[in-house]
């Protein structure tokens, strides 16, 4: 048996070597040319992305005070309203501070009363000094007392005036001290209120970072105590979209997504923001796209990973062809020579001829078409130096586009200009391509077309030499060669 197996193995090896190395022929399956039919249908272009489900608004609740948690009211999944108590820091220290501030305020107010009494005393002394000074003046005039006695009385009068001003200033100082003590008391009361950690919004607690008895240390920043998600009936997804696809994503685009928790259910959403800031990681650039969606029954939970399809284009009842026909590239010796005018339809062809054809379809009369054609020749002549200077393609394209628009504005009315610009936008959204149909002589005939959007199965045919029902080649058989 071993000998028989050895002979069979040697025969198999010999057969394989002959198949690869025999110069005379190559054995391969034969068959018919595979084709598909151009038909009509819908095409939906999508951009796939992955993102994380988040609450529409999440508030992190912290503490501005340090202390020990002596009461814990809220827990995970607790539904709260704005102002509801979540937890409390031991308030004893802060209560003592309030009491101290109240006492200081009482002392300051008492000092104001003292200063008011001092003002009344100073006013009485001033009145006595003034009357005495006036009596001394009359006595001096009658020569009954000396001038020195009058001077002494005058100095006492002026001193009494100064004492009154000092008393009034001391009262103002005492009143300012009252304001200071009132502010200190208000600050102490605010700190006491802050020992009660309350919810700033209506929502549900999705994270609790403290336990009963834990000491909270608020130094350089407020420590996180709770995270509250506002109204989980609506959620948002932050999706990462590759830079190659971000150009087709716009605000308002519809989306579809699934999560692993509900693999058989598809959710719908809408793009609400395309963030301009790039995210670069390992030389890969992505952009964040924010998607909002309804969350009936609150089944979508924060943190879930969503697989998202962003709809970037929809075409209904359009000509379409299988993607295999777009990818197909035959050998050069099987391509028949293109007929007259084949290069002008669908492909790039002659830009001038395409423009005149477009104007003819728009109903522009022959005289204006000739004028436009003449002015466009002048435009390209004036830009010849730009071509020769080796300017970059983007600069040349912008100059040609601007000059062409000026020519059109001079020769087309407002309605025709709108049609022209719509056609231009349509041309910019398509690309030229060549598909191939099977000829009777065995060669493949190139068909110039313009392709629009594509999905994973079909590509739109936006114009060109193919119509509904035409057949195009997708694959050639492997033929036996001598």
Can you tag this structure with a few keywords?
elongated; single chain; 482 residues; 9 helices; disordered N terminus; six-stranded antiparallel barrel; 39% helix; Elongation Factor Tu (Ef-tu), domain 3; OB fold (Dihydrolipoamide Acetyltransferase, E2P); Helix Hairpins
Q: What is the β-strand count?
A: 19
- The number of distinct helices, counting runs of at least 4 residues, comes to 9
State the CATH class of the domain at 92-194: Mainly Alpha
What CATH architecture of the domain at 92-194 would you give?
Orthogonal Bundle
Q: Give the overall silhouette.
A: elongated
**Relative helix content:** 25-40%
Order of helices and strands: HEEEEEEHHEEEEEEEEEHHHHHHEEEE
Lateral strand order in the biggest sheet: 2-11-14-13-12-15
Strand content: 25-35%
- Structural class of the helices, strands and pairings? alpha+beta
According to CATH, the fold-level topology of the domain at 92-194 is Helix Hairpins
- Unreliable spans: 1-30, 339-349
**How many strands, which pairing sense, and closed or not: the largest β-sheet?**
6 strands, antiparallel, barrel
State the gist of this model.
Helix content is 39%, strand content 31%. It is elongated, with a radius of gyration of 46 Å. The two termini are 39 Å apart.
